[in-house]
Amino acid sequence: MNRLHASHSTPPHTAVVGLQWGDEGKGKIVDLLTARHDVIVRYNGGANAGHTVAVAGERYALHLIPSGILYSDKTCVIGNGVVVDPEKLLEEMATLRGRGIEVGDNLKVSNRAHLVLPYHKEQDAAYEEFLAARSGLGEANAAIGTTRRGIGPAYADKVRRSTALRVGDLLHPERLRSRLEISCGLRAAEMAALGVKAPAPDPVDLTERFAAFGAALRPHITDSVYLLHDLVAEGRSLLFEGANASLLDIDHGTYPFVTSSNCSSLGIPAGTGLPGRLVERVVGIMKSYSTRVGGGPFPTELLDETGDRIRERGREYGTTTGRPRRCGWLDVVAVRYAAMICGADALACTLLDVLSGLDELKICTAYRRGGQRTERFLPDAEDLEGWVPEYETLPGWSEEIVDTSDRSGLPANAQRYLERIEELVGVPIELVGVGPERNQTLATSAWRDPPGR
Ligand code: GDP
Ligand code: IMO
Ligand code: MG
Fold it and tell me: Which CATH superfamily is 2-110+223-443 part of?
Protein backbone atom coordinates (compact mmCIF):
# COMPACT_ATOMS: atom_id res chain seq x y z
CA MET A 1 0.00 0.00 0.00
CA ASN A 2 1.21 3.42 -0.89
CA ARG A 3 -0.17 6.85 -1.68
CA LEU A 4 -2.41 6.87 -4.73
CA HIS A 5 -1.19 7.97 -8.12
CA ALA A 6 -3.41 8.43 -11.13
CA SER A 7 -2.98 5.86 -13.86
CA HIS A 8 -3.65 6.19 -17.55
CA SER A 9 -4.98 2.70 -18.26
CA THR A 10 -8.78 2.28 -18.33
CA PRO A 11 -10.14 1.04 -15.03
CA PRO A 12 -13.40 -0.92 -14.69
CA HIS A 13 -16.73 0.82 -14.16
CA THR A 14 -16.72 1.33 -10.40
CA ALA A 15 -19.24 2.26 -7.74
CA VAL A 16 -18.45 4.07 -4.50
CA VAL A 17 -21.12 3.44 -1.86
CA GLY A 18 -21.45 4.13 1.84
CA LEU A 19 -21.71 1.04 4.06
CA GLN A 20 -22.96 2.78 7.20
CA TRP A 21 -25.37 5.63 7.91
CA GLY A 22 -23.71 8.21 5.68
CA ASP A 23 -20.76 10.60 5.86
CA GLU A 24 -18.19 7.82 5.48
CA GLY A 25 -16.01 10.02 3.27
CA LYS A 26 -17.55 9.10 -0.08
CA GLY A 27 -16.84 12.56 -1.51
CA LYS A 28 -13.15 12.29 -0.71
CA ILE A 29 -12.83 8.82 -2.23
CA VAL A 30 -14.85 9.76 -5.34
CA ASP A 31 -12.64 12.81 -5.88
CA LEU A 32 -9.57 10.62 -5.50
CA LEU A 33 -10.77 7.92 -7.89
CA THR A 34 -12.02 10.47 -10.43
CA ALA A 35 -8.44 10.73 -11.71
CA ARG A 36 -8.84 7.19 -13.13
CA HIS A 37 -12.33 7.55 -14.64
CA ASP A 38 -14.01 9.67 -17.33
CA VAL A 39 -17.58 10.06 -16.13
CA ILE A 40 -18.85 10.51 -12.56
CA VAL A 41 -22.49 9.69 -12.00
CA ARG A 42 -24.89 10.42 -9.13
CA TYR A 43 -27.82 8.00 -9.17
CA ASN A 44 -29.80 8.68 -5.99
CA GLY A 45 -30.70 11.15 -3.27
CA GLY A 46 -30.61 14.89 -3.59
CA ALA A 47 -29.36 17.86 -1.61
CA ASN A 48 -29.63 15.77 1.58
CA ALA A 49 -26.14 14.56 0.67
CA GLY A 50 -23.14 16.55 1.82
CA HIS A 51 -19.91 15.30 0.29
CA THR A 52 -16.68 16.98 1.32
CA VAL A 53 -13.62 17.16 -0.87
CA ALA A 54 -10.41 18.64 0.54
CA VAL A 55 -7.62 19.58 -1.83
CA ALA A 56 -4.57 21.66 -0.94
CA GLY A 57 -6.24 23.11 2.14
CA GLU A 58 -9.44 24.05 0.28
CA ARG A 59 -12.66 22.32 1.32
CA TYR A 60 -15.60 21.93 -1.04
CA ALA A 61 -19.03 20.78 0.15
CA LEU A 62 -21.00 19.14 -2.66
CA HIS A 63 -24.69 18.34 -2.38
CA LEU A 64 -26.08 17.68 -5.84
CA ILE A 65 -23.07 17.95 -8.10
CA PRO A 66 -20.88 14.83 -8.36
CA SER A 67 -17.61 15.01 -6.43
CA GLY A 68 -15.66 14.63 -9.68
CA ILE A 69 -16.39 18.26 -10.61
CA LEU A 70 -12.96 19.50 -9.50
CA TYR A 71 -11.47 17.84 -12.60
CA SER A 72 -12.53 20.00 -15.55
CA ASP A 73 -11.84 17.28 -18.13
CA LYS A 74 -14.34 14.79 -16.66
CA THR A 75 -18.06 14.57 -17.33
CA CYS A 76 -20.32 14.76 -14.27
CA VAL A 77 -23.85 13.39 -14.62
CA ILE A 78 -26.82 13.84 -12.29
CA GLY A 79 -28.82 10.72 -13.14
CA ASN A 80 -32.56 10.17 -13.40
CA GLY A 81 -32.73 8.65 -9.89
CA VAL A 82 -31.71 11.92 -8.21
CA VAL A 83 -34.25 14.46 -6.92
CA VAL A 84 -33.07 17.88 -8.02
CA ASP A 85 -33.75 21.13 -6.24
CA PRO A 86 -32.92 23.46 -9.15
CA GLU A 87 -32.43 26.50 -6.95
CA LYS A 88 -29.88 24.63 -4.81
CA LEU A 89 -28.21 23.23 -7.91
CA LEU A 90 -27.78 26.69 -9.43
CA GLU A 91 -26.45 28.00 -6.11
CA GLU A 92 -23.95 25.17 -5.93
CA MET A 93 -22.85 25.80 -9.51
CA ALA A 94 -22.39 29.51 -8.77
CA THR A 95 -20.41 28.81 -5.60
CA LEU A 96 -18.06 26.47 -7.43
CA ARG A 97 -17.60 28.89 -10.31
CA GLY A 98 -16.89 31.63 -7.78
CA ARG A 99 -14.03 29.48 -6.52
CA GLY A 100 -12.58 29.02 -9.98
CA ILE A 101 -14.03 25.57 -10.70
CA GLU A 102 -15.28 25.02 -14.23
CA VAL A 103 -18.97 24.13 -14.38
CA GLY A 104 -20.11 24.14 -17.98
CA ASP A 105 -20.42 21.44 -20.55
CA ASN A 106 -18.84 19.05 -18.04
CA LEU A 107 -22.11 18.93 -16.02
CA LYS A 108 -25.17 17.10 -17.31
CA VAL A 109 -28.54 16.75 -15.59
CA SER A 110 -31.09 14.11 -16.49
CA ASN A 111 -34.34 15.40 -17.97
CA ARG A 112 -36.03 12.55 -16.08
CA ALA A 113 -34.71 13.41 -12.63
CA HIS A 114 -37.57 14.57 -10.41
CA LEU A 115 -37.82 18.08 -9.04
CA VAL A 116 -37.81 19.23 -5.43
CA LEU A 117 -40.15 22.21 -5.08
CA PRO A 118 -40.37 24.66 -2.18
CA TYR A 119 -43.55 22.99 -0.93
CA HIS A 120 -41.69 19.67 -0.62
CA LYS A 121 -39.36 21.29 1.88
CA GLU A 122 -42.29 22.83 3.77
CA GLN A 123 -44.00 19.45 3.84
CA ASP A 124 -40.83 17.71 5.01
CA ALA A 125 -40.58 20.14 7.94
CA ALA A 126 -44.31 19.96 8.68
CA TYR A 127 -44.30 16.14 8.86
CA GLU A 128 -41.30 16.21 11.15
CA GLU A 129 -42.95 18.79 13.44
CA PHE A 130 -46.13 16.74 13.50
CA LEU A 131 -44.25 13.57 14.46
CA ALA A 132 -42.14 15.36 17.06
CA ALA A 133 -45.28 16.85 18.63
CA ARG A 134 -46.78 13.35 18.90
CA SER A 135 -43.70 12.19 20.78
CA GLY A 136 -44.21 15.16 23.12
CA LEU A 137 -47.53 13.53 23.98
CA GLY A 138 -45.70 10.48 25.30
CA GLU A 139 -45.53 8.44 22.11
CA ALA A 140 -42.27 6.99 20.84
CA ASN A 141 -40.26 9.56 18.91
CA ALA A 142 -41.32 8.86 15.36
CA ALA A 143 -39.64 11.93 13.82
CA ILE A 144 -37.01 10.73 11.37
CA GLY A 145 -34.70 13.68 11.83
CA THR A 146 -34.60 14.39 8.12
CA THR A 147 -32.38 17.02 6.53
CA ARG A 148 -35.60 18.91 5.64
CA ARG A 149 -34.41 19.17 2.05
CA GLY A 150 -37.77 17.93 0.75
CA ILE A 151 -36.39 14.53 -0.22
CA GLY A 152 -39.18 12.29 1.12
CA PRO A 153 -42.05 14.41 -0.26
CA ALA A 154 -40.36 14.71 -3.68
CA TYR A 155 -39.86 10.94 -3.97
CA ALA A 156 -43.42 10.42 -2.67
CA ASP A 157 -44.68 12.59 -5.54
CA LYS A 158 -42.58 10.57 -7.98
CA VAL A 159 -44.35 7.43 -6.83
CA ARG A 160 -47.73 9.18 -6.75
CA ARG A 161 -47.09 10.28 -10.37
CA SER A 162 -49.95 12.74 -10.94
CA THR A 163 -48.39 15.42 -8.72
CA ALA A 164 -44.77 15.03 -9.81
CA LEU A 165 -42.58 17.29 -11.92
CA ARG A 166 -39.36 16.39 -13.66
CA VAL A 167 -36.34 18.39 -14.76
CA GLY A 168 -37.47 18.16 -18.41
CA ASP A 169 -40.70 19.98 -17.48
CA LEU A 170 -38.61 23.07 -16.65
CA LEU A 171 -38.09 23.57 -20.38
CA HIS A 172 -41.83 23.66 -21.15
CA PRO A 173 -43.50 26.49 -19.20
CA GLU A 174 -47.00 25.45 -20.25
CA ARG A 175 -46.52 21.90 -19.11
CA LEU A 176 -44.92 23.21 -15.95
CA ARG A 177 -47.90 25.47 -15.29
CA SER A 178 -50.56 22.80 -15.78
CA ARG A 179 -48.71 20.30 -13.57
CA LEU A 180 -48.16 22.94 -10.90
CA GLU A 181 -51.87 23.83 -10.89
CA ILE A 182 -52.65 20.24 -9.89
CA SER A 183 -49.89 19.76 -7.36
CA CYS A 184 -50.30 23.19 -5.70
CA GLY A 185 -54.05 22.62 -5.26
CA LEU A 186 -53.52 19.30 -3.56
CA ARG A 187 -50.64 20.66 -1.50
CA ALA A 188 -52.69 23.57 -0.17
CA ALA A 189 -55.34 21.15 1.06
CA GLU A 190 -52.76 18.90 2.73
CA MET A 191 -50.89 21.73 4.41
CA ALA A 192 -54.15 23.17 5.75
CA ALA A 193 -54.96 19.76 7.24
CA LEU A 194 -51.56 19.71 8.94
CA GLY A 195 -52.20 23.17 10.37
CA VAL A 196 -49.29 24.75 8.51
CA LYS A 197 -49.61 28.52 8.52
CA ALA A 198 -47.49 29.09 5.39
CA PRO A 199 -49.28 30.70 2.43
CA ALA A 200 -50.57 28.22 -0.15
CA PRO A 201 -48.14 27.61 -3.02
CA ASP A 202 -48.96 29.77 -6.01
CA PRO A 203 -48.71 27.94 -9.37
CA VAL A 204 -48.29 31.17 -11.36
CA ASP A 205 -45.40 32.39 -9.25
CA LEU A 206 -43.79 28.96 -9.16
CA THR A 207 -44.10 28.57 -12.94
CA GLU A 208 -42.28 31.85 -13.44
CA ARG A 209 -39.49 31.00 -11.00
CA PHE A 210 -39.01 27.45 -12.20
CA ALA A 211 -39.13 28.38 -15.89
CA ALA A 212 -36.26 30.79 -15.11
CA PHE A 213 -34.33 27.94 -13.43
CA GLY A 214 -35.03 25.88 -16.54
CA ALA A 215 -33.61 28.60 -18.78
CA ALA A 216 -30.44 28.71 -16.67
CA LEU A 217 -30.08 24.93 -16.62
CA ARG A 218 -31.02 24.35 -20.26
CA PRO A 219 -27.43 23.74 -21.50
CA HIS A 220 -27.01 20.99 -18.89
CA ILE A 221 -30.34 19.19 -19.27
CA THR A 222 -30.19 16.07 -21.37
CA ASP A 223 -31.44 12.53 -21.85
CA SER A 224 -28.91 11.08 -19.43
CA VAL A 225 -29.80 7.48 -20.23
CA TYR A 226 -28.75 7.71 -23.88
CA LEU A 227 -25.82 9.91 -22.89
CA LEU A 228 -24.49 7.27 -20.47
CA HIS A 229 -25.01 4.44 -22.93
CA ASP A 230 -23.19 6.45 -25.61
CA LEU A 231 -20.28 7.13 -23.24
CA VAL A 232 -20.06 3.44 -22.36
CA ALA A 233 -20.10 2.53 -26.07
CA GLU A 234 -17.21 4.97 -26.63
CA GLY A 235 -15.18 3.07 -24.04
CA ARG A 236 -15.38 5.68 -21.26
CA SER A 237 -14.95 4.50 -17.72
CA LEU A 238 -17.76 5.32 -15.29
CA LEU A 239 -17.58 6.04 -11.57
CA PHE A 240 -20.88 5.91 -9.69
CA GLU A 241 -21.17 8.06 -6.60
CA GLY A 242 -23.65 6.82 -4.02
CA ALA A 243 -25.28 9.47 -1.87
CA ASN A 244 -26.50 8.77 1.69
CA ALA A 245 -25.64 5.15 2.52
CA SER A 246 -26.70 1.53 2.59
CA LEU A 247 -28.15 1.53 6.11
CA LEU A 248 -30.33 4.47 5.01
CA ASP A 249 -31.52 2.61 1.89
CA ILE A 250 -35.31 2.74 1.57
CA ASP A 251 -35.57 -1.05 1.10
CA HIS A 252 -32.56 -2.34 3.02
CA GLY A 253 -31.83 0.20 5.76
CA THR A 254 -33.10 0.61 9.31
CA TYR A 255 -36.64 1.31 8.13
CA PRO A 256 -38.44 3.65 8.76
CA PHE A 257 -35.38 5.66 9.87
CA VAL A 258 -33.98 5.79 6.37
CA THR A 259 -33.99 8.13 3.41
CA SER A 260 -36.31 7.72 0.42
CA SER A 261 -34.03 6.24 -2.23
CA ASN A 262 -31.95 3.13 -2.91
CA CYS A 263 -28.59 4.44 -1.78
CA SER A 264 -26.81 1.10 -1.86
CA SER A 265 -25.30 -0.06 -5.15
CA LEU A 266 -28.71 -1.58 -5.88
CA GLY A 267 -29.94 1.89 -6.83
CA ILE A 268 -27.54 2.20 -9.75
CA PRO A 269 -29.49 0.49 -12.57
CA ALA A 270 -32.79 2.19 -11.79
CA GLY A 271 -31.14 5.54 -11.08
CA THR A 272 -29.14 5.64 -14.32
CA GLY A 273 -30.82 3.40 -16.88
CA LEU A 274 -27.69 1.25 -17.15
CA PRO A 275 -27.85 -2.51 -16.61
CA GLY A 276 -26.62 -3.60 -13.17
CA ARG A 277 -24.06 -5.97 -14.69
CA LEU A 278 -22.19 -2.99 -16.10
CA VAL A 279 -20.79 -2.19 -12.65
CA GLU A 280 -17.60 -4.19 -12.42
CA ARG A 281 -16.25 -3.09 -9.05
CA VAL A 282 -17.97 -1.90 -5.91
CA VAL A 283 -15.93 -0.04 -3.34
CA GLY A 284 -17.69 0.09 0.01
CA ILE A 285 -16.74 3.11 2.10
CA MET A 286 -16.71 2.66 5.87
CA LYS A 287 -15.47 4.83 8.67
CA SER A 288 -13.19 3.15 11.15
CA TYR A 289 -15.97 3.84 13.70
CA SER A 290 -19.70 4.58 13.30
CA THR A 291 -21.75 7.75 13.04
CA ARG A 292 -25.37 8.54 12.42
CA VAL A 293 -27.30 11.81 12.02
CA GLY A 294 -30.99 12.00 12.85
CA GLY A 295 -33.17 9.41 14.58
CA GLY A 296 -33.16 5.65 14.48
CA PRO A 297 -31.38 2.70 16.03
CA PHE A 298 -27.64 2.80 16.56
CA PRO A 299 -26.56 -0.21 18.64
CA THR A 300 -22.94 0.88 19.21
CA GLU A 301 -23.67 4.55 20.01
CA LEU A 302 -21.36 6.06 22.63
CA LEU A 303 -23.06 8.62 24.85
CA ASP A 304 -19.89 9.22 26.84
CA GLU A 305 -16.53 10.95 26.69
CA THR A 306 -15.21 8.57 24.05
CA GLY A 307 -18.15 9.48 21.79
CA ASP A 308 -17.44 13.18 22.38
CA ARG A 309 -13.75 12.68 21.67
CA ILE A 310 -14.48 10.96 18.36
CA ARG A 311 -16.94 13.74 17.42
CA GLU A 312 -14.37 16.47 18.09
CA ARG A 313 -11.35 14.75 16.51
CA GLY A 314 -13.38 13.63 13.51
CA ARG A 315 -15.15 17.00 13.17
CA GLU A 316 -18.37 15.01 13.14
CA TYR A 317 -20.83 17.79 12.38
CA GLY A 318 -23.16 17.49 9.38
CA THR A 319 -21.93 18.85 6.04
CA THR A 320 -25.53 19.63 5.04
CA THR A 321 -27.24 20.62 8.29
CA GLY A 322 -24.37 21.25 10.74
CA ARG A 323 -26.01 18.88 13.23
CA PRO A 324 -23.64 17.05 15.62
CA ARG A 325 -23.36 13.46 14.46
CA ARG A 326 -24.00 10.62 16.89
CA CYS A 327 -20.77 8.65 17.29
CA GLY A 328 -20.01 5.08 18.32
CA TRP A 329 -17.76 2.05 17.92
CA LEU A 330 -17.44 0.24 14.65
CA ASP A 331 -20.34 -2.14 14.05
CA VAL A 332 -19.10 -4.95 11.87
CA VAL A 333 -22.47 -6.72 11.91
CA ALA A 334 -23.92 -3.68 10.15
CA VAL A 335 -20.98 -3.19 7.77
CA ARG A 336 -20.88 -6.88 6.80
CA TYR A 337 -24.58 -6.73 5.97
CA ALA A 338 -24.15 -3.56 3.90
CA ALA A 339 -21.15 -5.04 2.07
CA MET A 340 -23.28 -8.10 1.27
CA ILE A 341 -26.17 -6.02 -0.06
CA CYS A 342 -23.84 -3.89 -2.18
CA GLY A 343 -21.63 -6.72 -3.39
CA ALA A 344 -18.55 -4.86 -2.16
CA ASP A 345 -15.33 -6.08 -3.78
CA ALA A 346 -13.11 -3.77 -1.77
CA LEU A 347 -13.35 -1.53 1.26
CA ALA A 348 -12.09 1.97 1.86
CA CYS A 349 -11.62 2.45 5.59
CA THR A 350 -11.68 6.17 6.32
CA LEU A 351 -10.88 8.45 9.25
CA LEU A 352 -8.47 5.97 10.83
CA ASP A 353 -6.44 8.96 12.09
CA VAL A 354 -9.37 9.96 14.33
CA LEU A 355 -8.82 6.87 16.49
CA SER A 356 -5.20 7.73 17.42
CA GLY A 357 -4.77 8.17 21.16
CA LEU A 358 -7.46 5.76 22.34
CA ASP A 359 -6.12 3.04 24.68
CA GLU A 360 -8.40 0.44 23.28
CA LEU A 361 -10.90 0.06 20.47
CA LYS A 362 -14.04 -1.98 20.38
CA ILE A 363 -15.60 -3.71 17.39
CA CYS A 364 -19.16 -5.01 17.56
CA THR A 365 -19.09 -8.54 16.17
CA ALA A 366 -22.58 -9.76 17.17
CA TYR A 367 -25.78 -8.63 18.90
CA ARG A 368 -27.30 -10.14 22.03
CA ARG A 369 -30.78 -9.92 23.50
CA GLY A 370 -31.67 -11.99 26.55
CA GLY A 371 -30.26 -15.43 25.82
CA GLN A 372 -30.25 -14.87 22.06
CA ARG A 373 -27.21 -14.05 19.93
CA THR A 374 -26.98 -13.15 16.25
CA GLU A 375 -24.29 -12.12 13.81
CA ARG A 376 -26.94 -11.00 11.33
CA PHE A 377 -28.11 -7.42 10.98
CA LEU A 378 -31.77 -6.62 11.61
CA PRO A 379 -32.74 -4.00 9.03
CA ASP A 380 -35.88 -2.84 10.80
CA ALA A 381 -35.87 -0.25 13.56
CA GLU A 382 -38.31 -2.14 15.78
CA ASP A 383 -36.69 -5.53 15.26
CA LEU A 384 -33.32 -4.03 16.20
CA GLU A 385 -34.66 -2.63 19.44
CA GLY A 386 -33.32 -4.20 22.62
CA TRP A 387 -30.34 -5.88 20.98
CA VAL A 388 -27.03 -4.92 22.57
CA PRO A 389 -23.61 -5.20 20.96
CA GLU A 390 -21.16 -7.95 21.76
CA TYR A 391 -17.71 -6.41 21.55
CA GLU A 392 -14.26 -7.58 20.76
CA THR A 393 -11.59 -5.30 22.25
CA LEU A 394 -8.37 -4.46 20.46
CA PRO A 395 -5.42 -2.41 21.66
CA GLY A 396 -5.23 1.17 20.36
CA TRP A 397 -2.24 3.26 19.29
CA SER A 398 -1.02 6.63 20.49
CA GLU A 399 0.84 7.92 17.41
CA GLU A 400 -0.65 10.44 15.00
CA ILE A 401 -0.83 8.81 11.57
CA VAL A 402 -1.77 11.65 9.21
CA ASP A 403 1.67 11.71 7.64
CA THR A 404 1.89 7.99 7.05
CA SER A 405 2.45 7.14 3.41
CA ASP A 406 2.18 3.37 3.48
CA ARG A 407 0.00 0.85 5.30
CA SER A 408 3.08 -0.98 6.54
CA GLY A 409 4.21 2.29 8.12
CA LEU A 410 1.13 2.44 10.37
CA PRO A 411 1.55 1.54 14.06
CA ALA A 412 1.32 -2.24 14.57
CA ASN A 413 -1.99 -1.94 16.42
CA ALA A 414 -3.52 0.15 13.62
CA GLN A 415 -2.48 -2.52 11.12
CA ARG A 416 -3.98 -5.16 13.40
CA TYR A 417 -7.24 -3.22 13.63
CA LEU A 418 -7.49 -3.07 9.82
CA GLU A 419 -6.64 -6.75 9.45
CA ARG A 420 -9.33 -7.71 11.97
CA ILE A 421 -11.91 -5.65 10.08
CA GLU A 422 -10.94 -7.41 6.84
CA GLU A 423 -11.35 -10.81 8.52
CA LEU A 424 -14.69 -9.94 10.08
CA VAL A 425 -16.22 -8.28 7.01
CA GLY A 426 -14.62 -10.73 4.60
CA VAL A 427 -13.61 -8.02 2.11
CA PRO A 428 -10.11 -6.55 1.65
CA ILE A 429 -9.39 -2.98 2.66
CA GLU A 430 -7.73 -1.42 -0.37
CA LEU A 431 -7.86 2.24 0.63
CA VAL A 432 -7.21 3.74 4.05
CA GLY A 433 -7.99 7.34 4.97
CA VAL A 434 -5.53 8.98 7.34
CA GLY A 435 -6.66 12.58 6.87
CA PRO A 436 -9.25 14.64 4.95
CA GLU A 437 -6.94 15.67 2.09
CA ARG A 438 -7.04 13.93 -1.25
CA ASN A 439 -3.47 12.71 -0.80
CA GLN A 440 -3.95 11.50 2.78
CA THR A 441 -4.97 8.10 1.54
CA LEU A 442 -3.06 4.83 1.57
CA ALA A 443 -3.80 2.59 -1.40
CA THR A 444 -2.91 -0.94 -2.43
CA SER A 445 -0.91 -1.37 -5.62
CA ALA A 446 -4.16 -2.34 -7.40
CA TRP A 447 -5.19 1.32 -7.22
CA ARG A 448 -1.87 2.67 -8.39
CA ASP A 449 -1.76 0.42 -11.42
CA PRO A 450 -5.34 -0.59 -12.16
CA PRO A 451 -6.17 -3.51 -14.43
CA GLY A 452 -7.75 -2.56 -17.77
CA ARG A 453 -11.18 -3.88 -18.65
P1 GDP B 1 -19.61 11.82 2.69
O2 GDP B 1 -20.97 12.35 2.88
O3 GDP B 1 -19.55 10.33 2.75
O4 GDP B 1 -18.93 12.34 1.46
O5 GDP B 1 -18.77 12.33 3.94
P6 GDP B 1 -18.78 13.83 4.56
O7 GDP B 1 -18.01 14.71 3.67
O8 GDP B 1 -20.15 14.23 4.93
O9 GDP B 1 -18.03 13.58 5.93
C10 GDP B 1 -16.75 13.04 5.98
C11 GDP B 1 -15.83 14.05 6.70
O12 GDP B 1 -14.61 13.42 7.01
C13 GDP B 1 -15.48 15.24 5.84
O14 GDP B 1 -15.28 16.36 6.68
C15 GDP B 1 -14.16 14.82 5.19
O16 GDP B 1 -13.35 15.94 4.83
C17 GDP B 1 -13.54 14.05 6.32
N18 GDP B 1 -12.66 12.95 5.94
C19 GDP B 1 -12.79 12.04 4.93
N20 GDP B 1 -11.83 11.10 5.03
C21 GDP B 1 -11.10 11.41 6.12
C22 GDP B 1 -9.99 10.79 6.78
O23 GDP B 1 -9.48 9.75 6.38
N24 GDP B 1 -9.53 11.41 7.92
C25 GDP B 1 -10.08 12.56 8.41
N26 GDP B 1 -9.58 13.08 9.53
N27 GDP B 1 -11.12 13.16 7.82
C28 GDP B 1 -11.62 12.58 6.70
P1 IMO C 1 -24.26 11.73 2.72
O2 IMO C 1 -24.39 11.50 1.24
C3 IMO C 1 -25.92 11.29 6.72
C4 IMO C 1 -30.27 10.88 7.01
C5 IMO C 1 -30.90 12.06 7.72
C6 IMO C 1 -32.11 11.38 8.33
C7 IMO C 1 -32.52 10.39 7.24
C8 IMO C 1 -33.62 10.88 6.33
O9 IMO C 1 -23.66 13.04 3.07
O10 IMO C 1 -23.63 10.56 3.38
P11 IMO C 1 -33.75 12.74 4.42
O12 IMO C 1 -33.48 14.21 4.49
O13 IMO C 1 -32.91 12.01 3.44
O14 IMO C 1 -35.21 12.43 4.30
O15 IMO C 1 -33.34 12.20 5.89
O16 IMO C 1 -31.35 10.14 6.47
N17 IMO C 1 -29.40 11.24 5.87
C18 IMO C 1 -28.06 11.32 5.94
N19 IMO C 1 -27.24 11.16 6.98
N20 IMO C 1 -25.43 11.54 5.50
C21 IMO C 1 -26.25 11.68 4.44
O22 IMO C 1 -25.80 11.85 3.18
C23 IMO C 1 -27.63 11.59 4.64
N24 IMO C 1 -28.70 11.69 3.84
C25 IMO C 1 -29.78 11.46 4.59
O26 IMO C 1 -30.04 12.58 8.69
O27 IMO C 1 -31.73 10.65 9.47
MG1 MG D 1 -22.01 13.68 4.10
Answer: Adenylosuccinate Synthetase, subunit A, domain 3 (3.90.170.10)
pLDDT score of 247: 98
Residue ranges for the chain with pLDDT beneath 50: 2-8, 450-452
Give me ligand 3 centre to Cα 113, in Å.
21
The half-sphere exposure of 13 on its side-chain side, counting CA atoms within 13 A, is: 21
Mutate to test the pocket of ligand 2, among 51, 141, 241, 248 (most ligand atoms within 8 A of CB): 248
Whole-number Å distance, alpha carbon 104 to ligand 3 midpoint, is: 25
User: Is 251 one of the catalytic residues?
Assistant: no
Query: What's the rounded Cα separation, in Å, for the pair 18 and 26?
Result: 7
Residue 23 known to be catalytic: yes
How high is the pLDDT of residue 5?
42
Q: Enumerate the domain spans of the chain.
A: 2-110+223-443, 114-221
Task: Classify residue 207 as exposed, middle or buried by CB count within 10 Å of its CB (0-12, 13-18, 19+).
Answer: buried
Q: What angle do CA 352, 322, 76 make, to 5 degrees?
A: 75
The matching CATH number, chosen from 3.20.20.80, 3.20.20.70, 1.20.120.680, 1.10.300.10, for 114-221 is: 1.10.300.10
Predicted structure pTM score: 0.96
Please list every protein residue whose CB sits less than 6 Å from any atom of ligand 1. Answer: 18, 22-28, 50-52, 54, 315, 319, 350-351, 353-354, 433-436
